[in-house]
Amino acid sequence: METISRQKFLKYLGFSGAALLVPQLSSSFTSAPKFPPDTNDGALYVAHMTDIHIQSGKAAEDGFTSTPSTFFICIVTHIPILAICTLFDHSSRDSEHWSIPNNTLHADAKELTSLFHKYPNIKTCLSGHIHMIDHINYLGIDYYCNGAVSGSWWKGDFHEFPPSFSMMRFSDTGSVERDIVCYDWQKMG
């Protein structure tokens, strides 16, 4: 296996003079402390950046600052930072409020979206985790939640979303297009 330099790697990702930088932010923690303390809802994990990841986030922010404006940045997380479909998976609603568990959407979404908004070359955030598909644009950044190849854990559709995967096309203008590939398969079990 060939080891390649960062410059050579970025050349592979290049688009006629522009390039794509894809940092992955880790955000899923088992037995996580409650964050904020009164909103864990008994979940085994909470989606947020811990102090260790905030420090690495500072390194990421330094990377955002030092990334040339001709490079577009796509953030990848497992658990969505923003996704409207989380309202329909394990959320609850009373007569006045929606409640979304912190294991289906980042508890620190406000902080992350504010950070990303400072860098105009951050164009896209990709995630999965909740087995549903959506796309929202918030403050000029596209947030894609990309379904699951297993659908409802190999037992058919999940909340009307069939088993699928996404193929992303990144252009040299910073725009992104998504192709969703759904497929038919026989249920197991």
Shape, per Cα inertia axes: globular
Instruction: Summarize model confidence as the mean pLDDT.
Output: 74
Largest sheet descriptor: 5 strands, mixed
Estimated share of beta-strand residues: 15-25%
Order of helices and strands: HEHEEEHEEEEE
Percentage of residues in helical conformation:
10-25%
Q: What is the strand tally?
A: 9
In spatial order, strands of the major sheet run 1-2-5-7-6
Separation of termini? Answer: 40 Å
> Unreliable runs, pLDDT <50, ≥5 residues?
1-17, 30-41
CATH topology of the domain at 17-148: Transcription Regulator spoIIAA
Question: Mind explaining what this structure looks like?
Answer:
This protein has helices at residues 6-13, 51-66, 109-117, and strands at residues 19-21, 71-76, 92-93, 98-99, 122-127, 133-138, 141-146, 164-170, 176-182. It has three helices and nine strands. The protein has 189 residues and is an alpha/beta fold. β8 (164-170) and β9 (176-182) form a beta hairpin. It has a domain at 17-148: 2-Layer Sandwich (Transcription Regulator spoIIAA), CATH 3.30.750.
